[in-house]
Q: What sequence folds into this?
């Protein structure tokens, strides 16, 4: 009797895990994916982008769609639900003048889009040589999000 009881527990456990994984995959496929772009902002012709820091809460990075030549990217795992994605120019020659280079540069998936519990912020650092660097801060109401096809 003890052996058949253990077999039943194993069978029920496997069925439970199978159902749990099926529900999880259905939920993740139903979530929409959005591409993210830097909004337009006042920038002088001699100013160049050197760094971009994106913070995501209640959202995750699905893909990094393009990275300018000689730039590095670091994706930090979530800490207290906040992920960080940082793009950094390798050195002065790789600084970017055209903001449009970063159109649709990452794709994200909202974890709970229905309740609007996500938050996105972005800091764009600009080189204004010979002056000090400038930082432009953008929040989810200004950041450009476009729904993409799964």
A:
């Amino acid at each position: 009797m003890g052996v058949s009881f253990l077999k039943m527990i194993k069978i029920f456990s496997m069925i439970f895990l199978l159902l749990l994984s099926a529900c999880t995959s259905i939920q993740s496929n139903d979530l929409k994916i959005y591409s993210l772009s830097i909004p337009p902002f006042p920038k002088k012709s001699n100013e160049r982008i050197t760094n971009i820091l994106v913070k995501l809460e209640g959202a995750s990075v699905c893909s990094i769609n393009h990275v300018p030549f000689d730039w590095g990217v670091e994706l930090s795992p979530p800490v207290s639900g906040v992920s960080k994605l940082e793009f950094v120019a390798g050195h002065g020659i790789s600084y970017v003048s055209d903001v449009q280079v970063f159109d649709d540069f990452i794709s994200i998936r909202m974890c709970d889009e229905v309740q609007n519990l996500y938050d996105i912020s972005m800091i764009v650092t600009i080189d204004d040589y010979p002056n000090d660097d400038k930082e432009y801060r953008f929040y989810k109401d200004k950041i450009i999000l476009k729904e993409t096809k799964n």
The helical segments are 2-30.
